[in-house]
Amino acid sequence: MIRHLGFAAVLLSAACKLTQPQPPDYIVSYALTGAAQITCDSVKYKDAQGTVIKVTSPTLPWSVAYVAPTGSFVAGTAWVVATGSGQAAKLKVTWTISGVSTASDSSFATTTGAGKFALIVAHQL
What we know:
Strand order of the largest sheet: 4-1-6-7
Radius of gyration: 23 Å
CATH class: Mainly Beta
Oligomer: single chain
Order of helices and strands: HEEEEEEEE
CATH topology: Lipoxygenase-1
Structural class: mainly beta
Helix content: 10-25%
Strand content: over 45%
CATH architecture: Sandwich
Number of helices: 1
Distance between the termini: 49 Å
Largest sheet: 4 strands, antiparallel
Shape: elongated
């Protein structure tokens, strides 16, 4: 009986070492929206490998998504042009652990006149 308990303890110990938890992956999405009069010169964002990707003259609404590991840094910047006052634009980054949780950060602006402005979001997962 004691020999069986010792063997069971060794098996349990070995099994626990083989099944260590892994950090989760995140589903990351960037979304840029704006009033009908808003246009976007370009958007830059970091992908899962940390490479900066530039999208020139995206049509609004614009979005992109990818899977990123824990510890990734998400960052996005949109250069936006407004034709007058009262025009709103928003850049939102959302990161989700599938089936567990969702969080986000965003940059929002409403114009007081015609001109260019930037929306910036950055966060470490």
